[in-house]
């Protein structure tokens, strides 16, 4: 096997595998992906797979739309079960939060998002298992969807392989140095080298960047989800995000539901985190269900788990050429919503790497060139919100 490539990607989560696919489609030279585990072994296989355009930033909306189209297309022929358009409902019982939803609606519509504001009496038809008497309003996007993230990563890997990308799975991967104009990476005891190195290693990106001497402002954090089996649940209903409890729930197959909650505000180590859902999380779900979905509050627990996501200092991802580093690129920092943005973000980075477009223009607020100096350590902050600025509450 050749020991060199034009591009070497570290990480085969949804980001790295989608990037390999997009580079291969553009015939942008030879590509190797090195991954110490299996495809999607990181946060990708642990994600809820919610894809919604109810986001706080226009670039996010556009990139999510690109991902959404691509996921539908990728799944449609071989894995239709991995994509379902079920809509997304964000609701509140708090009049102050309703004002935020109303303002967000104006902004979202100006970005071409087909959302509408619903009163509580309309919600029962959409989610018959819910109890919405106290709700003051909800933002509804009927076009939003849910996907199976691990299936998508596997589809990207399969499509990239067909186009000549080489994948190295299940071997230790350690970047060494940039020497004689090439990045040297130890992959399973052999040295691979490439002109361009892309770090797309999710929560592991922070330590990999430190190890190659180009740290970036990233804080990994833990977040949790669970699959539950209620006595009765419809097979389809919109994903519901209750902004007051920060709990979301979506339909899962076989009459089950998948629920989760938000960002934990302490740094986590992706090598040493508690991978099982904890009692505090389950108690939080139970108490949120008691009010919102009383019929589901005594559901059987099928499984509960945690994964590690990556927060950035300003809640925008970090994508593109790392300042002052030779041919080093990143694709990370998705602040807990890298599934919905992964495909679109990877496609944009592939266009930049193949010289079709200039990074700053295409990568917008995610362009890593905005990080021009050291950033003080910061706690993880939620990215999956509507409100911009310094007060990301909803
Ligand atoms: C409970 C939970 C629910 C979520 N729900 C959603 C959701 O509904 N919608 C959404 O959009 N997002 C969601 N997310 C976030 C989403 O999972 C992540 O943003 C996304 O999966 C990040 O993808 P990634 O490819 O960047 O990272 P990962 O999937 O973490 O992939 C990184 C890969 O890098 C590999 N790696 C580690 N060390 C090295 C090394 N030395 N060299 C090379 N590779 C290495 C890892 O093994 C891993 O496979 C959720 C996350 C969690 C945990």
What does it look like?
The chain contains 9 helices and 19 strands. With 394 residues, it is α+β, with helices and mostly antiparallel strands. It folds into 2 domains: 4-45 and 150-218 and 313-370, FAD/NAD(P)-binding domain (3-Layer(bba) Sandwich); 82-146 and 220-309, D-Amino Acid Oxidase, Chain A, domain 2 (2-Layer Sandwich), CATH 3.30.9.10. Strands 1, 2, 9, 10, 11, 12, 18 and 19 form an 8-stranded mixed sheet that branches. Strands 6-7-5-14-15-16-13-17 form an 8-stranded mixed sheet. It has a 3-stranded antiparallel sheet with strand order 3-8-4. A hairpin with a 5-residue loop joins strand 15 and strand 16 (257-260). Helix 1 packs parallel to helix 5 and helix 1 runs parallel beside helix 8. The radius of gyration is 21 Å and the shape is globular. The structure holds flavin-adenine dinucleotide. Flavin-adenine dinucleotide (FAD) is lined by residues 10-16, 34-37, 41-44, 46-50, 173, 200-204, 208, 223-225, 260, 307, 309, 332, 334, 336-340, 342.
Strand % is: 25-35%
Classification by helices and strands: alpha+beta
Mean pLDDT: 95
Task: Give helix and strand order, one letter per element, not per position.
Answer: EHEEHEEHEHEEHEEEEHEEEEHEEEHH
Largest sheet: 8 strands, mixed
